[in-house]
Amino acid sequence: MDLTFLGATGTVTGSKYLVASGGRHLLVDCGLFQGYKQLRLRNWEPLPAAAARLDAIVLTHAHIDHSGYLPRLWKQGFRGPVYCTAPTRDLCRIMLPDSGGLQEEEAEYANRHRFSKHTPALPLYTREDAEHSLRLFETVPWHQDWEPVRGLHARLGRAGHMPGAAHLRLADGHTSVLFSGDLGRPDDRVLRAPEPPPAADYVVTESTYGDRLHLEVDVLEQLAQVINRTSARGGTVVIPAFAVGRAQTLLHCIDLLKKQGRIHHLPVYLNSPMAADALGVFSRHSQELRLSSTECRAMEEAAHIVRTVDESRELNARRGPMVIIAGSGMATGGRVVHHLKAFGPDRRNTILLVGFQAGGTRGAKLRDGADSVRIHGEDIPIRAEVAVLDALSGHADASQLEAWLRQMAHAPRRAFVTHGEPDAADALRQRLERRLGWAVTVPEQGQRVVLA
């Protein structure tokens, strides 16, 4: 079995792992690169393995950094099956067309305002491309062996990161490898804890928070403080949020705060049709959640849903106090960037960051104290308060990653640390070497290893 790292090396985006076994080629995850321009440019490059030569794809979950390259691959000629869990399929039905639509909108906006260096600016793929790629999906039950390609046996276990998120074990009869996917937290407010990992000869583990620990804080109290002090200024809280996962957790927390009387009953807007549609997927797959059916309904009713572009524009003309939750989570695109333009220059407002911010994204620049961010070709001053609430992250921290891996029946021959910024990946490497005594490698982009 050969393993080639085609993404998520030195970054938390673009997850792609090419597994070759018995003359067959399987791609584990098919994600978009995000953040720094040099990473985003990779999305325009063909895979080293021609799309038509790939036999199948397995997705660990639906987030765009794990699934968002699939429509581009379809354009390049891939027609094989895409295997995943039922919740992942249902979420991709929402997220992939939305991704294509956003890219079309951004290309059209760039052409209309003439700020692109390319004439004309083109989308990486379209909504129609995404719809075509969805025809390739085939769902697989939890904990059931199947062969995504001949001679390679696979099994999915729950990873807890979002509905349908899985860790994946592959075995060819001689060698086995475990992919963690994105690992959730054992104490997540909405999602069930990750299931223990099966034994494997090799492990590929994420390291998003490999260099830090989540603070033991009262998340509800921190969120209440941000909302209340902004409300007291007459301001608006703008929250860039991942449409699947963080948006739903935020709605659940805001609903609890209102019911407990810890915040005023101010207007809350969910300005993400994708996040609104994902609420239905959460309810349909409630076995993935810690919430009761009553709590699921309350989460769905916790905000006014903003569907149209005109309604989104109208929000920018309103003044607080109010809360706006909008995609995307790292402020790389989508409707939230228009809200940053409208509300970022006003000191009364707050921009609240509630998830991981990859290097090179607007979210990372805001987190690091930038006094302006570039949006649609112009520098927008940021005078609003910028607050960070890491405790709502959906990723396991360094200690939780170690604890999860420690449950393996025996140490692997080698672990590969991916899906992390360089400092985080190397910190987890050192942690696993020193505390578990494992042999660990941080691979480079394009690196190929033989799993013997």
Quantity of strands, as a count: 22
The CATH superfamily of the largest domain is identified as Ribonuclease Z/Hydroxyacylglutathione hydrolase-like
What share of the residues does DSSP label as strand, in percent? 15-25%
When the domains are counted, the total is 2
* Morphology: globular
Instruction: Give the helix proportion (percent range).
Output: 25-40%
Side-by-side strand order of the widest sheet: 6-5-4-3-2-1-22
| Largest beta-sheet characterization | 7 strands, mixed
What does this structure look like?
This protein is of the alpha/beta class and 452 residues long. It has 2 domains: 2-212 and 394-450, Ribonuclease Z/Hydroxyacylglutathione hydrolase-like (Metallo-beta-lactamase, Chain A, 4-Layer Sandwich), CATH 3.60.15; 219-392, Rossmann fold, CATH 3.40.50. It has helices spanning 37-40, 64-67, 70-75, 86-113, 127-134, 219-232, 246-259, 273-284, 293-300, 309-317, 336-343, 362-367, 398-406, 422-436, and strands spanning 2-5, 17-21, 24-28, 56-58, 82-84, 137-139, 146-149, 152-158, 166-171, 176-179, 202-206, 236-240, 268-271, 304-305, 322-326, 350-353, 372-375, 378-381, 385-388, 414-418, 440-441, 448-450. The strands form 4 sheets. A 7-stranded mixed beta sheet has the order 6-5-4-3-2-1-22. The protein is globular, with a radius of gyration of 21 Å. The N and C termini lie close together (7 Å).
